[in-house]
Structure formats: C-alpha cells, structure tokens
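Question (not urgent): is this output format expected?
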Amino acid sequence: MNKIGFNVLAWTAAVSDDVFPIVDRLKSIGYDGVEFYLGTPELEPYKRMGDYTKSLGLATTAVVTVGKDDNPISESAAVRAKGLDKIKWAVDRAHALQATVICGPFHSAHMGFANRPALDQEYALAGEVLHAAGEYAAQANIVFAMEALNRFECYLCNTSAQLKKLVEAANHPNVRAMFDTHHANIEEKNYGVAIETIAPYLEHVHISENDRGTPGEGQVLWDDAFSALAKIDYKGWLTIEAFSRNDPDFANAIGVWREFSDPWDIAEKGYQFIKEMCIKHQLGSQL
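Got this back:
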C-alpha cells in the first residue's frame, strides 16, 4: 500500500508550531503524511509536531544531511565520530516526531568533494558509521533510506548501483535505500534498470521534477518511473520533494536561486498527478 507524502521544505526547513497550518492544508488535500527536515536544534518542537500530525491521522517521515565537520567518510576518526553523533541526534528527533523513516544523503558530506572518484575505502568508512547508526536506529524502530545525489552535490553515491554498494557495505537491516526521480533524471541512463538495481533495499521514493517544480510539468520520464515501481511491487512512500526560496538560508545552501512553482500549486497538482500515475500503472493501493 503506497502512502503519499509532501516535504515541507517547499516552505521551511524549521520544525515549529508555525508549520501547523501547512500541515492542516496538506491533510485537507488528501496527503497521508508529511516529511520534515531535521535541522531544528531543540527536541520539544518535534514532540509537539509528532503529536499534532498524529492527532490529524497523518504519518511523518524525516530527512537529514551531514557536512564537512561531521562527514562519515572523513579521513579523520574524530570527524567520523561526529558524523555518527549527528545521525544519532537525528534519530532522537525523528523518534520524537514519531517518524519511522529518515531519508537523505547522510552517508557523506553534502557538497563536499575530493576532486577524484569515490574510493572503496570511503564506502567502507561510510558502511562502518551507518552500521553503528543502524544499531541505534533499530532501538527506535527507525529505518534509514540512503539517497544517491547528482554529481553536483555528491561524489560518493550518484547512481543506484553505487547506492547498492553503500547499503551492502553498511550490512544492517535498518540501513536501506531511497530513489529520487530528480537525481535519477540527471545520473541514470534508464529508470527501470536503476529501480530494479536498488529494489531489494528500496524503502522510500521522492517524487521530484527535473526543475524541482510541479511533478508532471517537466522532463522526468514519469511513465518509466511508475511502471518500474509497479513492476517491483513497491509499497512504500511516494513523497513529493520540491524547493522554493521561502526559506532563504536553506535555499542558498542547496543552490535554489529562483522560484520553480508555487508550493501550493505543487502540492495540489502533485497529489492528483501521483494518484493518476498510480492508477495508470496499477501501483499499490491506487488500483
């Protein structure tokens, strides 16, 4: 059974009571859940948000990133230790949020490059950190959905094949994978092959247009993506991830320099688009 979610990063990277009206409207559109970025330092806002979403009958998922100071593939053992601490910190906040999935590229520093291809040793280092973090996550019933990013944001994992290598290096049942249509649109040669490659570990899917605007209004090969998900009988989340400049600090950090679509246009049209594509390709509960 597929649930449809929306990531509130289209409005803000913060978790606070100010987001309640956004959650209310997403619920009215028909969404099953809401995804939040784990960046707000205090624990209490996550608890309030978790209680609030639960009261509306909405589930939650979460996303997190790491940087150069807590990079799990750093040559420095001290920096790798900080990476593990950051992921554990994220697990605590996701647990307070009542989320059961943390997705994202927290296998390595976002926008951190080594001016060379990834080394086998770096996959091994990431695997060690993620395995230890997976042990911690298991206690909170949380699963990691690791993400492959495009070449302009990451060098460790750009493709499903590389992501599979990473997940297998971690070797933990709570360390799995996600698929993001935006990044795949840049890096993969074929959606079907990419999804089949990561299928044994696939936990989460981001529905994201090539320009980060409204799904279905760009160049992503949506029929290929949804038919491939149906072929593997994917039953996880289909969560829209779109960006804007509503939160300037976050937008600047990820290189969003213009508006793509109005967030509510994305939310309303995107929800209907996902429903239609699920029916068309006989995916999950939308039959």
